[in-house]
Design brief:
Elements (H helix, E strand, L loop, with lengths): L3 H20 L1 H22 L5 H8 L3 H15 L3 H11 L1 H21 L3 H15 L2 H12 L5 H18 L2 H10 L1 H22 L16 H9 L2 H13 L1 H19 L3 H29 L3 H20 L5 H16 L4 H7 L6 H30 L14 H22 L10
Length: 432
């Protein structure tokens, strides 16, 4: 049995190590590199929202085909979520982020140089494959380098960094594409990716003691079995899928053309709508842990998020008296309350063993990203279904306001379903 003096020394040593891991500049610098990659890949993800008309004209395709082209990102991203969680737990974020950035670079170049829609789809597929581990690696860094009490806050800030990428993928990318062409803009994005890749390899370390994850976890697939066996994990994932639609379906793709049609504005001006959603979502993510701590509940905050977002986007779509500036304000508020839903990641982590943190995040994120895989092409197909068959002088289809409203109604229905799912949640909040 240890002496009281020795026990006190051990406790003090543990406290010092926890403090060092949570507040040292090194820990934050490493996490910042993870954030930089997540921001970068989100720019690539959201960039198609401001060049939909260009893609339709360049490849002579319809809205449904553009939705499918954009969704090729998710065709790779979604199936890789669980493997990426296992890989991040097994090998650590340094190698994973570096290789992932390389895939994004190659995918961006193929997309930029594509002469056929199939080549463009392959480029988007590689971008999705490279992006799959971005958020998971941020969460892995948080779980290794920071205290448990910081996890919900870091989850919110990490998602906020991603939404900043969505902002840069809006008006700034639209301006770049309008002045330099969308192809050259993707080449520039590939060059930025090279910088992110090199810095990540130099800076990121897998653990505070410098050791790798090799040979540490021998039965990670057993952890996946444990996670998949819990019904709560499936409910949390389905909720996340519904609640991510304001970003994946609206802000990342169909929101800009909808606003262009409704208010007769350019893609640069309409991109402010997507930006408002991203900014609101970022602030909401950052505020979610504070509100959850105040209420001492994950479930109540996630329920508020679902129903408030439902009413906000219903107003954006169907309230006829909104001006463009008023619509931007409503989109900001809707994005803000939808950001509270990010608590599905802390809820997933709290519902599973800590040593499988990245695997549980990957399992949840697979559900979340199914929203883009399903709804981006689905909304495009619904737009085509409602379309009256008119074409413009450039050969691109001309869609009416009713076509976008008909398609985006699916988002409203999904948000309502998300609110209903919350009613079946078990509370995971525990006071630290």
């Amino acid at each position: 049995m240890s002496s009281p003096k020795k026990l006190k020394e051990n406790i003090n040593d543990l406290s010092e190590r926890k403090k060092e891991n949570s507040y040292s500049p090194k820990a934050w610098f490493i996490l910042s590199c993870g954030w930089a990659f997540y921001l970068y890949e989100y720019i690539l993800r959201a960039s198609t929202s401001v060049i939909t008309n260009e893609l339709m004209a360049d490849f002579s395709i319809s809205a449904g085909a553009v939705g499918t082209l954009a969704a090729f990102y998710y065709f790779a991203y979604v199936p890789l979520q669980i493997p990426c969680g296992v890989i991040a737990d097994r090998f650590g974020p340094r190698k994973v982020v570096t290789i992932s950035a390389l895939l994004c670079i190659v995918g961006s170049m193929i997309f930029a140089k594509s002469n056929t829609v199939h080549a463009a789809q392959f480029g988007r597929f590689l971008i999705g494959a490279g992006s799959a581990c971005a958020y998971i690696c941020c969460m892995k860094i948080a779980s290794v380098w920071f205290n448990k009490s910081s996890f919900a806050f870091i989850a919110g800030v990490s998602m906020m960094m991603g939404t900043f990428g969505g902002i840069f993928g809006g008006k700034p990318f639209a301006h770049l594409a309008n002045t330099q062409g969308w192809r050259f803009s993707m080449v520039i994005a590939a060059v930025v990716g090279c910088i992110v890749m090199i810095i990540s390899w130099i800076v990121i370390r897998d653990k505070p003691d410098g050791k790798t994850f090799k040979n540490e976890e021998h039965k990670l697939l057993d952890g996946l079995k444990i996670i998949a066996a819990k019904p709560q994990n499936w409910l949390i994932g389905m909720y996340g899928c519904m609640m991510y639609l304001p970003l994946s379906a609206f802000a990342e793709l169909w929101g800009v053309p909808y606003l262009m049609q409704r208010f007769s504005v350019t893609n640069e001006t309409a991109s402010y709508g997507a930006i408002m959603v991203f900014i609101g979502y970022a602030v909401g993510c950052l505020s979610s842990s504070t509100l959850s701590d105040y209420w001492q509940s994950r479930k109540r905050v996630m329920g508020l998020s679902a129903f408030a977002t439902f009413f906000g986007f219903a107003a954006v779509l169907f309230y006829p008296g909104l001006s463009f500036s008023e619509t931007l304000a409503v989109l900001f508020v809707s994005g803000f309350v939808s950001g509270f839903s990010i608590l599905y990641f802390p809820a997933a982590k709290e519902n599973n063993p800590t040593k499988y943190s990245a695997t549980s995040i990957g399992f949840t994120n697979a559900f979340v990203m199914v929203s883009g895989l399903i709804f981006q092409p689905l909304l495009g197909a619904l737009i085509d279904h409602s379309w009256d068959g008119n074409f413009g002088a450039d050969g691109a289809p001309i869609y009416a306001l009713k076509d976008y409203q008909f398609a985006l109604s699916a988002v409203i229905l999904a948000l309502l379903i998300g609110g209903i799912i919350v009613l079946f949640f078990k509370e995971t909040y525990k006071k630290d």
